[in-house]
Design brief:
Number of strands: 12
Radius of gyration: 24 Å
Structural class: alpha/beta
Strand content: 5-15%
Distance between the termini: 37 Å
Shape: globular
Largest sheet: 4 strands, parallel
Order of helices and strands: EEEEHEHHHHEHEHHHHEEEEEHHH
Strand order of the largest sheet: 8-7-6-12
Number of helices: 13
Length: 434
């Protein structure tokens, strides 16, 4: 049951392979994305007892940033032997927000916060080099924007991943609905009050001109995101030290204060667009209940059950007080499709690492969580784990200790470099000193 791995070879062809769910099979291999420096890649099979230097669970943008950092570091240190690394991904191909590349959607961060530029602007893997390699650099400059289309940024990520192992595309869920339900008047419900929910609501409104679309939010109104320059500094990589060294109560207060930068908020241009479309409905019908597309405020979903003809019956209740003038009675909403855009609970690592709990010794993290060091490493008891030979590092689930940027693209280039240094820095330093 050997995973596919990568060894250096003199070929100039980037590696091409397949992804799997990362679980060994009875017969054959558990395939994955493997790493070796750019333009020196080929696959070979590991023997069952061969040891990896690095195993990454998942190959999304965060792990892709690590692969790029490994590439850049070892390419600049030719005397160092590249580590034998393997990235396991359950999806069949590399993907980022698959099915969410809706027409007209743009990035919410500057393109310079890509997977390489903040760490090394000279890297092959910068966004600017991507558009240069694609022959669009002059045209991109003529756009005069720091916020490229999300579709283009996904293409950039796929381009980066293609140097290691990525091919193909995901099917668009909405496109499948269009094919299956052609000619039928549909009813949609979108749950959530953030950017993704608003984008889905806006897209369904336009894509299905005869459909009824309801956006269900728990607040009194959609709220704008705060992307002003002073507030955006909280995502600077040099802020992580201060956040980590603060008390847990101070960190929690700061995260709560800055939630409007990322959680349950929508970019102002989209808010204004939606408000204008709602206003045009008001011109035709003063009674909102006659509108094809509506925002249902101060609602919470109490229960769901299967309705008639494969529909879904949502039981809605009022959320909180009656500030908006609503009453407390419950209501039923029958729809054909439900899109949930309610965020994530990033705790899968806790179940994955349950069996290693005894290796922590007396150490515990905040609120009983798994502890993590500033360098993203779990501080296992050194009497039980030789820290020079083994370790576990966490990324994307450390918001409570490392700040809001931990879950975002903004920090990936720097964090990827920090992780490479934490894992292989001693080896790199000793090789360079020879």
């Amino acid at each position: 049951m050997a995973p596919s791995a990568l060894n250096p070879s003199p070929t100039d062809t980037p590696a091409v392979g397949e992804f799997s769910n990362g679980l060994p099979t009875k017969n054959g291999h558990s395939n994955g994305t493997s790493f070796t420096p750019y333009h020196t890649a080929s696959f070979s099979s590991l023997s069952p007892d061969e040891t990896l230097d690095l195993l990454c669970i998942g190959f999304g943008p965060a792990s892709l940033a690590i692969a790029i950092a490994l590439n850049d570091v070892y390419k600049s240190s030719p005397a160092c032997k590249p580590p034998k690394a393997l990235f396991l991904e359950k999806q069949p191909q590399f993907g980022w927000h698959s099915g969410m590349q809706l027409p007209g959607t743009k990035m919410q961060i500057c393109f310079l916060k890509d997977l390489a530029t903040p760490r090394d602007p000279r890297s092959h893997f910068t966004f600017l080099n991507y558009v240069h390699q694609k022959g669009r650099l002059n045209q991109f400059m003529n756009l005069g924007t720091f916020l490229p289309a999300r579709l283009e940024y996904e293409d950039y990520l796929r381009w980066c991943a293609s140097h290691f192992d990525s091919q193909g595309q995901f099917a668009d869920t909405i496109a499948k609905i269009q094919e299956r339900e052609v000619g039928r008047q549909l009813r949609f419900a979108v749950v959530g009050g953030g950017q993704s929910a608003a984008e889905i609501f806006n897209d369904l409104w336009s894509r299905f001109p005869d459909a009824e679309v309801k956006l269900i939010i728990k607040g009194a109104s959609l709220r704008p995101s705060d992307d002003s320059p002073f507030v955006n500094e909280i995502f600077n990589h040099d802020r992580v030290d201060g956040v980590y060294n603060a008390t847990s109560s101070s960190r929690a207060s700061a995260i709560a204060l800055d939630r409007a930068t990322n959680y349950g908020v929508v970019r102002l241009d989209l808010l204004e667009n939606l408000y204008g479309k709602l206003y045009m409905q008001r011109l035709r019908h003063s009674d909102e209940k006659q509108w094809r597309c509506r925002i249902l405020h101060n609602r919470k979903i109490i229960s769901t059950k299967q309705g008639n003809d494969s529909s879904v019956l949502l039981r809605l209740g009022m959320n909180g007080d009656k500030i908006s003038g609503g009453d407390e009675q419950e209501e039923d909403l029958e729809v054909d499709y439900v899109f949930t855009a309610t965020g994530y609970v990033r705790n899968v690592h806790e179940s994955l690492l349950t069996d290693l709990g005894d290796l922590l010794g007396e150490r515990t993290g905040e609120n009983g969580k798994i502890p993590v060091n500033r360098d993203y490493r779990i501080p296992y008891d050194e009497e039980k784990v030789d820290s020079k030979r083994a370790g576990v590092w966490l990324q994307g689930c450390n918001e409570a200790t490392h700040g809001l940027s931990d879950t975002l693209l903004s920090i990936l280039a720097i964090r990827g470099g920090e992780l490479v240094q934490s894992i292989f820095g001693e080896e790199l330093s000793s090789t360079k000193s020879l």
